[in-house]
Amino acid sequence: MNAYTKKQVLLSAEYVHLQYGEKKILRDVNFKIRDIHREGMEQGQVVALIGRSGIGKTQLFKIMAGLVQPTEGTVRIGEGQHAVKPGQVGIVPQNYILFNHRTIYRNLKIGLDNSGVTLTEAEKKRVIGDYAETFDLAEHLNKYPAQLSGGQRQRVSIIQQVLTGNKFILLDEPFSGLDILMVDKVIALLRKVSMLSEQNTLVIVSHDIENAAAVADTVWILGKEEGKEGATIKKEYDLCETGLAWKPDIRTDRRFLELIEEIKKQL
Ligand SMILES: Nc1ncnc2c1ncn2[C@@H]1O[C@H](COP(=O)(O)OP(=O)(O)OP(=O)(O)O)[C@@H](O)[C@H]1O
């Protein structure tokens, strides 16, 4: 059994509504992501936000990052639970843009340069070297993005966000366009990132239920409730509680397969 406790709220939404003209996109979205503590471990949080195409995942994602203002309601961040501002949440977009004319090393350095931490060039080199080693990118540091596979570029983009020091990272469709081996590597990377620091919190927006749920400790279903306009988090699955979180080989577990079937029915 995985002993854990959930402590202070790190990211929350209260009564979030979003409307464009007459069209209600999001309705009464409420959530609380709490700091998970596991004894003897640095355990971050990983939430999978799952929903049908066009339901409003990207809009909610942008509201969580402070990039879109909701029509009503507030998203709050950090231990102080202040209203989120742009820049407080790192974003790994679907088409993870890297600077093509810069090496992987220099792309990663952008993350550190934006972190606000004062480091000498030698210290930056050491930090980037350590991360590259941990995340299997050491041999690629002097290459350019075009010389890497899609999955490797994806990993660089994720690590770039980690290096900015953001504890909150939103990832938009991190598995799309990757072959199955790369998907496994990205999942392993997300697990590692979530365990780098106690407060690290990843929110993964995805259509890919199996992969997103395999790495998550919580799954949110964004969908419409019968007879109501606009999408809301209509179901939350707590995978810590059901013992399905933090298990690298979870995908073969019968209970996990049942969960996936149940989630599909909810969509
Ligand atoms: N600026 C806008 N003005 C009006 N409607 C918008 C605007 N931006 C998005 N929408 C609408 O909001 C709804 C939700 O869009 P959103 O991109 O969040 O969906 P999604 O769940 O991310 O879809 P997908 O999985 O296909 O990316 C869509 O119906 C879209 O047409």
Summarize the structure.
This protein has 267 residues and is of the alpha/beta class. Helix content is 30%, strand content 28%.
Question: In terms of topology, how is this protein built?
Answer:
Elements: E1 4-20, E2 23-38, E3 45-51, H1 57-64, E4 72-77, E5 82-83, E6 89-92, H2 104-113, H3 121-134, H4 150-163, E7 168-172, H5 180-194, E8 201-206, H6 209-215, E9 218-223, E10 232-238, H7 254-266
Parallel strand pairs: 3-8, 3-9, 6-7, 7-8
Antiparallel strand pairs: 1-2, 1-4, 4-5, 9-10
Helix pairs in contact: 2-4, 4-5, 5-6, 6-7
The structure holds adenosine-5'-triphosphate.
Question: Which labels suit this protein?
Answer:
Rossmann fold; ATP binding; 10 strands; binds adenosine-5'-triphosphate; alpha/beta; ABC_transporter-like_CS; globular; ABC transporter ATP-binding protein; ATP-binding; 2 domains; 4-stranded antiparallel beta sheet; 267 residues
